[in-house]
Design brief:
Layout: E1 5-11, E2 21-26, H1 31-41, E3 51-57, E4 63-74, E5 77-85, H2 87-92, H3 95-103, H4 107-119, E6 125-129, H5 133-142, E7 145-146, E8 152-156, H6 162-175
Parallel strand pairs: 5-6
Antiparallel strand pairs: 1-2, 2-3, 3-4, 4-5, 6-8, 7-8
Helix pairs in contact: 4-5
């Protein structure tokens, strides 16, 4: 099976031509992305598409995954989970790259907000199940909204009646953690 990777956003340091940070949509993931997921969740990542992977392209031509988010298609929407950032990779960035990343909002924020832009015309909305306060703060800043149910957050790309939104949110709550 061939790996299909679509770059959907890049970050370039001031004064540089080559991007050091690429955000990609992928159908499959490679072992170093699986290792990043396992380091946070102590389990294997989902194999079903859709995978968002942000890569750090160092000046010495080494490419490392720095952020991963999984999306799963569900009832015209997407379920978002498995988000993780490799702090060790962020520390490998030079000061200019770290400053550019910080100015862009950070690896997770930039990856998630890029995903929302990418999915704008492709889904009704995206749901997350988030119990980590730090991750929730960044998720809300990127565009997620709090729902009436603890841990369930939502982002809407389509205009829907509040009753339709609530019906979907209730179904997501019934799923439990994902």
């Amino acid at each position: 099976m061939s790996q299909q990777i679509q770059t959907i956003n890049i970050l370039v340091s001031p004064g540089q031509e080559k991007p050091f940070f690429r955000i990609c949509m992928q159908q499959t993931i490679c072992e170093n992305v699986r290792a990043l997921f396992r380091s946070k969740f102590h389990d294997s990542p989902p194999e079903d598409p859709i995978h968002l992977v942000a890569y750090y392209d160092s000046k010495d031509s080494i490419t490392l995954p720095v952020c991963y988010i999984h999306f799963y298609e569900w009832q015209g929407c997407l379920l978002c989970g498995g988000a993780c950032v490799d702090q060790r990779v962020l520390k490998k960035m030079n000061p200019d790259e770290r400053a550019s990343m910080r100015n862009a909002g950070g690896a997770y924020y930039l990856s998630l907000s890029t995903a929302f832009n990418y999915f704008q015309d492709k889904t009704l909305g995206v749901f997350g199940y988030c119990g980590d306060p730090s991750s929730e703060r960044i998720s809300l800043r990127a565009g997620f909204q709090i729902t009436p149910f603890k841990y369930v957050i939502a982002w809407w790309s389509a205009t829907m009646q509040d009753t339709e939104k609530l019906a979907l949110i209730e179904k997501v709550r019934e799923l439990g953690p994902f």
